[in-house]
Amino acid sequence: MGRRKADQTTLELTLRDQRVVWRIAALLLDYPTKQIVDMLDELHAAVHSLPAPAGPALLSFIDHARQTPPTELAAYYVETFDLRRRNCLHLSYYAFGDTRKRGMALLRFKHAYRGAGVELGEHELPDHLTVVLEFAATVDPVAGRRLLMEYRPVVELLRLSLQDSESPYRAVLDAVCATLPELNVADRRRVAELAAQGPPEEEVGLEPFAMDPMLHDQLGGRR
Protein backbone atom coordinates (compact mmCIF):
# COMPACT_ATOMS: atom_id res chain seq x y z
CA MET A 1 0.00 0.00 0.00
CA GLY A 2 2.77 2.45 0.98
CA ARG A 3 4.73 1.69 -2.19
CA ARG A 4 1.67 2.23 -4.38
CA LYS A 5 1.04 5.59 -2.72
CA ALA A 6 4.66 6.63 -3.27
CA ASP A 7 4.52 5.67 -6.96
CA GLN A 8 1.37 7.75 -7.39
CA THR A 9 3.12 10.71 -5.77
CA THR A 10 6.03 10.56 -8.22
CA LEU A 11 3.60 10.29 -11.15
CA GLU A 12 2.17 13.69 -10.23
CA LEU A 13 5.47 15.15 -11.40
CA THR A 14 5.68 15.03 -15.18
CA LEU A 15 9.04 14.37 -16.78
CA ARG A 16 9.29 18.09 -17.46
CA ASP A 17 8.56 18.83 -13.79
CA GLN A 18 11.20 16.34 -12.68
CA ARG A 19 13.78 17.94 -14.95
CA VAL A 20 12.92 21.39 -13.58
CA VAL A 21 13.32 20.08 -10.01
CA TRP A 22 16.68 18.51 -10.85
CA ARG A 23 17.92 21.66 -12.59
CA ILE A 24 16.93 23.98 -9.76
CA ALA A 25 18.23 21.58 -7.11
CA ALA A 26 21.57 21.38 -8.95
CA LEU A 27 21.88 25.16 -8.76
CA LEU A 28 20.84 25.38 -5.11
CA LEU A 29 23.22 22.61 -4.00
CA ASP A 30 26.15 24.24 -5.74
CA TYR A 31 28.39 26.81 -4.05
CA PRO A 32 26.34 30.04 -3.91
CA THR A 33 28.32 32.22 -6.29
CA LYS A 34 27.12 35.72 -7.17
CA GLN A 35 25.69 34.33 -10.39
CA ILE A 36 23.53 31.83 -8.49
CA VAL A 37 22.47 34.38 -5.88
CA ASP A 38 21.43 36.73 -8.67
CA MET A 39 19.20 33.96 -10.06
CA LEU A 40 17.21 33.41 -6.84
CA ASP A 41 14.32 35.69 -7.86
CA GLU A 42 14.04 33.87 -11.18
CA LEU A 43 14.15 30.49 -9.46
CA HIS A 44 11.52 31.65 -6.97
CA ALA A 45 9.14 32.36 -9.85
CA ALA A 46 9.93 29.07 -11.58
CA VAL A 47 9.11 26.77 -8.67
CA HIS A 48 5.57 28.12 -8.26
CA SER A 49 4.45 25.90 -11.15
CA LEU A 50 5.77 22.73 -9.49
CA PRO A 51 3.33 20.53 -7.53
CA ALA A 52 3.78 19.56 -3.89
CA PRO A 53 5.87 18.37 -2.23
CA ALA A 54 8.74 19.33 -4.54
CA GLY A 55 7.60 22.88 -5.33
CA PRO A 56 6.97 24.04 -1.75
CA ALA A 57 10.19 22.38 -0.58
CA LEU A 58 12.31 24.26 -3.10
CA LEU A 59 10.39 27.45 -2.40
CA SER A 60 11.17 27.24 1.32
CA PHE A 61 14.91 27.02 0.67
CA ILE A 62 14.87 29.77 -1.93
CA ASP A 63 13.04 32.04 0.54
CA HIS A 64 15.73 31.26 3.10
CA ALA A 65 18.52 31.97 0.61
CA ARG A 66 16.96 35.27 -0.48
CA GLN A 67 16.76 36.44 3.12
CA THR A 68 20.36 35.45 3.95
CA PRO A 69 23.29 37.79 3.19
CA PRO A 70 25.40 36.26 0.38
CA THR A 71 28.59 36.05 2.47
CA GLU A 72 26.70 34.31 5.26
CA LEU A 73 25.07 31.92 2.80
CA ALA A 74 28.47 31.05 1.30
CA ALA A 75 30.02 30.48 4.72
CA TYR A 76 27.13 28.23 5.73
CA TYR A 77 27.50 26.23 2.51
CA VAL A 78 31.18 25.56 3.27
CA GLU A 79 30.37 24.63 6.86
CA THR A 80 27.58 22.30 5.76
CA PHE A 81 29.10 20.46 2.81
CA ASP A 82 32.86 21.00 2.87
CA LEU A 83 33.56 20.57 6.58
CA ARG A 84 31.16 17.76 7.48
CA ARG A 85 31.92 14.27 6.26
CA ARG A 86 28.33 13.15 6.69
CA ASN A 87 27.15 15.82 4.24
CA CYS A 88 29.54 14.99 1.40
CA LEU A 89 27.90 15.66 -1.97
CA HIS A 90 30.05 13.06 -3.76
CA LEU A 91 27.69 10.10 -3.97
CA SER A 92 30.22 7.27 -4.24
CA TYR A 93 32.16 8.55 -1.22
CA TYR A 94 29.54 7.23 1.19
CA ALA A 95 29.85 3.69 -0.15
CA PHE A 96 33.53 3.47 -1.02
CA GLY A 97 35.43 6.30 0.68
CA ASP A 98 38.75 7.08 -1.01
CA THR A 99 39.44 3.53 -2.15
CA ARG A 100 40.11 1.73 -5.42
CA LYS A 101 36.48 0.61 -5.52
CA ARG A 102 35.44 4.26 -5.54
CA GLY A 103 37.68 4.79 -8.53
CA MET A 104 35.75 2.14 -10.42
CA ALA A 105 32.48 3.76 -9.37
CA LEU A 106 33.69 7.10 -10.74
CA LEU A 107 34.43 5.42 -14.06
CA ARG A 108 30.82 4.20 -14.20
CA PHE A 109 29.62 7.80 -13.88
CA LYS A 110 32.05 8.95 -16.57
CA HIS A 111 30.90 6.22 -18.94
CA ALA A 112 27.26 7.22 -18.43
CA TYR A 113 28.09 10.82 -19.33
CA ARG A 114 30.23 9.87 -22.29
CA GLY A 115 27.44 7.62 -23.56
CA ALA A 116 25.27 10.74 -23.75
CA GLY A 117 28.01 12.76 -25.46
CA VAL A 118 29.12 14.73 -22.38
CA GLU A 119 32.64 14.90 -20.97
CA LEU A 120 33.56 16.58 -17.72
CA GLY A 121 36.28 19.06 -16.90
CA GLU A 122 39.72 18.00 -15.79
CA HIS A 123 39.24 18.67 -12.10
CA GLU A 124 35.59 17.63 -11.75
CA LEU A 125 34.62 14.35 -10.10
CA PRO A 126 31.59 12.89 -11.88
CA ASP A 127 29.73 11.67 -8.79
CA HIS A 128 29.03 15.11 -7.33
CA LEU A 129 25.27 15.32 -6.78
CA THR A 130 24.97 18.64 -8.59
CA VAL A 131 26.66 17.16 -11.67
CA VAL A 132 24.32 14.15 -11.66
CA LEU A 133 21.26 16.38 -11.23
CA GLU A 134 22.32 18.76 -13.98
CA PHE A 135 23.05 15.84 -16.30
CA ALA A 136 19.59 14.37 -15.61
CA ALA A 137 17.94 17.76 -16.10
CA THR A 138 19.66 18.99 -19.22
CA VAL A 139 21.19 16.03 -21.06
CA ASP A 140 19.70 12.58 -20.48
CA PRO A 141 16.84 12.20 -17.96
CA VAL A 142 16.73 8.43 -18.35
CA ALA A 143 20.43 7.83 -17.69
CA GLY A 144 20.47 10.55 -15.04
CA ARG A 145 17.52 9.07 -13.19
CA ARG A 146 19.19 5.67 -13.36
CA LEU A 147 22.25 7.08 -11.57
CA LEU A 148 20.05 8.74 -8.94
CA MET A 149 18.19 5.47 -8.39
CA GLU A 150 21.43 3.51 -8.10
CA TYR A 151 22.53 5.87 -5.32
CA ARG A 152 19.06 6.35 -3.84
CA PRO A 153 20.17 5.14 -0.36
CA VAL A 154 23.03 7.68 -0.40
CA VAL A 155 20.68 10.51 -1.38
CA GLU A 156 18.40 9.50 1.49
CA LEU A 157 21.31 9.32 3.93
CA LEU A 158 22.33 12.84 2.94
CA ARG A 159 18.75 14.02 3.39
CA LEU A 160 18.59 12.47 6.87
CA SER A 161 21.93 14.00 7.83
CA LEU A 162 20.73 17.46 6.83
CA GLN A 163 17.49 16.82 8.69
CA ASP A 164 19.37 15.84 11.84
CA SER A 165 21.33 19.10 11.75
CA GLU A 166 18.15 21.08 10.99
CA SER A 167 19.78 22.44 7.85
CA PRO A 168 17.65 24.48 5.42
CA TYR A 169 19.35 22.46 2.66
CA ARG A 170 17.26 19.47 3.77
CA ALA A 171 14.36 20.98 1.80
CA VAL A 172 16.33 20.73 -1.44
CA LEU A 173 16.95 17.03 -0.81
CA ASP A 174 13.26 16.61 0.02
CA ALA A 175 12.46 17.96 -3.45
CA VAL A 176 14.95 15.64 -5.16
CA CYS A 177 13.58 12.63 -3.29
CA ALA A 178 10.06 13.61 -4.36
CA THR A 179 11.10 12.85 -7.96
CA LEU A 180 12.10 9.29 -7.00
CA PRO A 181 10.10 6.27 -5.79
CA GLU A 182 9.91 5.63 -2.07
CA LEU A 183 12.72 3.61 -0.53
CA ASN A 184 12.14 -0.14 -0.59
CA VAL A 185 13.21 -2.57 2.15
CA ALA A 186 16.62 -3.18 0.57
CA ASP A 187 17.21 0.56 0.22
CA ARG A 188 16.37 1.18 3.88
CA ARG A 189 18.70 -1.62 4.92
CA ARG A 190 21.46 -0.05 2.85
CA VAL A 191 20.84 3.37 4.41
CA ALA A 192 21.23 1.82 7.86
CA GLU A 193 24.44 0.05 6.83
CA LEU A 194 25.99 3.18 5.36
CA ALA A 195 25.05 5.23 8.41
CA ALA A 196 26.55 2.65 10.78
CA GLN A 197 29.76 1.95 8.87
CA GLY A 198 30.70 5.34 7.47
CA PRO A 199 32.97 5.69 4.40
CA PRO A 200 35.81 3.11 4.21
CA GLU A 201 39.35 4.17 5.00
CA GLU A 202 41.76 4.79 2.16
CA GLU A 203 43.22 1.64 0.64
CA VAL A 204 44.85 3.06 -2.48
CA GLY A 205 44.77 6.43 -4.17
CA LEU A 206 42.41 7.49 -6.90
CA GLU A 207 45.21 8.51 -9.25
CA PRO A 208 44.69 5.66 -11.74
CA PHE A 209 41.11 6.83 -12.14
CA ALA A 210 41.69 10.59 -12.29
CA MET A 211 39.74 12.64 -14.80
CA ASP A 212 41.12 12.58 -18.34
CA PRO A 213 43.02 15.89 -18.82
CA MET A 214 41.61 16.12 -22.35
CA LEU A 215 38.01 16.24 -21.15
CA HIS A 216 36.16 19.45 -21.84
CA ASP A 217 33.87 20.88 -19.17
CA GLN A 218 30.31 20.86 -20.51
CA LEU A 219 28.43 20.76 -17.22
CA GLY A 220 30.13 23.62 -15.39
CA GLY A 221 32.76 23.45 -12.64
CA ARG A 222 31.97 22.16 -9.18
CA ARG A 223 33.81 22.57 -5.94
Provide the residue-averaged pLDDT.
Answer: 85
Strand runs, count: 0
Q: What is the count of distinct domains?
A: 1
Characterize the main sheet.
none
Q: Which class in CATH terms?
A: Mainly Alpha
Report the sheet-strand fraction: under 5%
CATH topology: TorD-like
Helix/strand-derived category reads mainly alpha
What does this structure look like?
The termini are far apart. The protein has 223 residues and is an all-alpha fold. The chain is built from 13 helices and no strands. 63% of the residues lie in helices and 0% in strands. It has one domain: Orthogonal Bundle (TorD-like). Residues 1-11 and 203-220 have low confidence and may be disordered.
Put the structure in a nutshell.
With 223 residues, the chain is an all-alpha fold. The chain has 13 helices and no strands. The chain has a single domain, classed as TorD-like.
Present the secondary structure layout.
Elements: H1 2-11, H2 15-28, H3 34-38, H4 40-47, H5 54-67, H6 70-82, H7 91-96, H8 100-115, H9 129-138, H10 141-150, H11 152-164, H12 170-177, H13 185-197
Helix pairs in contact: 2-5, 2-9, 2-12, 4-5, 5-12, 9-10, 11-12, 11-13
Defining key terms:
223 residues; mainly alpha; 13 helices; globular
